[in-house]
Amino acid sequence: MSKQIQIAIDGPAGAGKSTIAKIVAEELGFTYIDTGAMYRAVTYKAMKENINLNDAIALEKMLLLTSIDLKPSENGQLVYLDGVDVSQLIRSNEVTANVSEVSAHANIREILVKKQQELAASGGIVMDGRDIATHVLKDAELKIFMSATAEERAKRRFIDNEKRGIPSSIETLKQEIIQRDKFDSEREASPLVQAEDAIYLDTTELSIEEAAKSILRLAKEKME
After folding, report:
1. What is the set of domains in the chain, with CATH numbers?
2. Which DSSP helix (H) or strand (E) runs through 125?
3. Which of 49, 74, 145, 148 is a Cys-bridge partner for 152, taking CB atoms 3.0 to 4.6 Å apart?
């Protein structure tokens, strides 16, 4: 039987992490954990309840009374917030524009990181986010830092939005991505940085399939 390893994939917004991580997990028969979806769910609920996104204490009180569950399905991973499927709702432009603000709070990260570590404890998982290799799964057997140019990431986000019926413009998306990169890299709580032992993967010129194959090859080497 192959070794049940942990695969940590980090990188900026729009690098293709989630899409590629899902493919890798499916190919290996591993569990996929979308940490970004967890932060999006918190952001969505806070906005819905008109909680000030700068108020870390109010957000923590809300989160401690909140259940977030990730469930696999034929159409990919579903996100349940307090028992309700919010998989599409958390992908709105409004949530996307505010999620970095919520995820910058150290206390919110601490609560969600603990949950993520519990989910990953048994191995056989692929987890993606901003600080997986540097903070959440420091001992992961395979660490990848995935990126692409801001232009390419804006194009991908635009196509994703089109598929979901969300109106957007490439130029606006590009500016939002640049701002989010800056915010995520400069925040005090677990900033976006490449782990020293992570392998850098530039996906600008790679198709989703090519990027997934690169990671699968590395994963299989670790599993031998």
Report:
1. 6-223 (3.40.50.300)
2. strand 125-129
3. 148
Residue 208, pLDDT > 60, answer: yes
Token pair in block for residue 180: 């989010």
pTM above 0.85, yes or no: no
Query: Which two structure tokens, joined as six digits, stand for 204?
Result: 């600008």
CA gap 177, 173 in Å, rounded:
6
Tell me the per-residue pLDDT of 56-90, one tens digit each, with 9 for 90 and over. 999 999 999 999 988 877 777 889 999 999 999 99
pLDDT of 2 strictly over 80: no
Size of the chain in residues? 224
**96-148 pLDDT, tens digit each:** 999 999 999 999 999 999 999 998 988 899 999 888 999 999 999 999 999 99
Long-range contacts of 148-157 (CB under 8 A, 24+ apart): 148/14, 148/15, 148/16, 148/202, 148/203, 148/204, 149/204, 150/174, 150/177, 150/178, 150/181, 152/203, 152/204, 153/12, 153/13, 153/14, 153/15, 153/177, 154/14, 156/14, 156/16, 157/13, 157/14
